[in-house]
Amino acid sequence: MSDSNSAVPAVDRADAVLQVLALSSEPVSPADLALHTGLAKSTLYLLLTSLEQRRWIEKKGSGYVIGIGLYILGCAYVHFDNLQHIFRTAAAEFVTAHNEVVQLAVLQGAEVVYLAREDAHRPVRLVSDMGTRLPAHACALGKALLAQLSDEEVMRLLPRELVAITDRTITRHDVLLAELAAVRRSGLALDQEEVAAGLNCFAVFAGETPMGRRIAVSTSIPTDRLGPKREKTIVQAIVRVAAQVRQSLSARA
After folding, report:
1. Which of the 8 DSSP states describes residue 225?
2. pLDDT tens-digit readout, 59-107
3. What does the domain layout of the chain look like in residue ranges?
């Protein structure tokens, strides 16, 4: 549950339910929702009815899942300041030229949240569907965004324990801070099989939206499709995508 000092406990209760559903890959029963949220069953059932009427949640079998109404509201996040259009325009050129995926993300707490993705025409296994979250310390997008903060801000933001996703994930704060310093110098953040084995990611900070959101763009490419020459070409291209997004955002500011 959220802070007990909140002035709007009803909103806290709704948020608690939605957070549980968002983290589950299958329908969640009312009993499990009560267990995870600590809500009384009578309160929970009234809340579920209200959320279902608004299509923020949907009944599926004996449980509940996130509903289409909430998805529609969430999409407004990237449509409001034309961010998705700006991203897709810049990313389309990259995909056409290099046939590799491009992704857009924002920093939320100690995680990155994927906002959009422009897919290529050849397969690559990704975990970057819209709304997906990843620990910022583990991925190139996260490093590109964390590098915009001071070391003190980064340390306040990150958890005490940096969880490993693969055996190459950075799990020491001092090592991460050293890498962020390198990102600040070069403007390029790397993820070398730190999120998925056999997958490399290159990310660049792409500026701040009119709403004050710091964003970054990236491309993820299997190791077997990379060589020194192609890597240099890809890096130059993703830097151009970031510059194009930044320029378009500045024009709208």
Report:
1. G
2. 999 999 999 998 888 777 767 778 888 999 999 999 999 999 999 999 9
3. 9-72, 80-252
β 214-222/189-192 pair status: unpaired
Per-residue pLDDT band at 2 (split at 50, 70, 90) = very low
| Tokens, residue 103 | 């992704």
User: And the tokens for 78?
Assistant: 């990237």
Half-sphere exposure of 54 (CA within 13 A, CB side): 13
pLDDT tens digits, one per residue of 223-249: 999 999 999 999 999 999 999 999 998
Identify the bridge partners of residue 105 per DSSP, sorted by sequence position: 114, 216
CATH code for the domain defined by 80-252: 3.30.450.40
CA 11, chain centre distance (Å): 24
CA 34 to chain CA centroid, nearest Å: 28
9-72 has which fold? Arc Repressor Mutant, subunit A (1.10.10)
Residue listed under structure tokens 């939605």: 18
Residue 36: φ, ψ to 5°? -80, -25
This prediction's pTM = 0.79
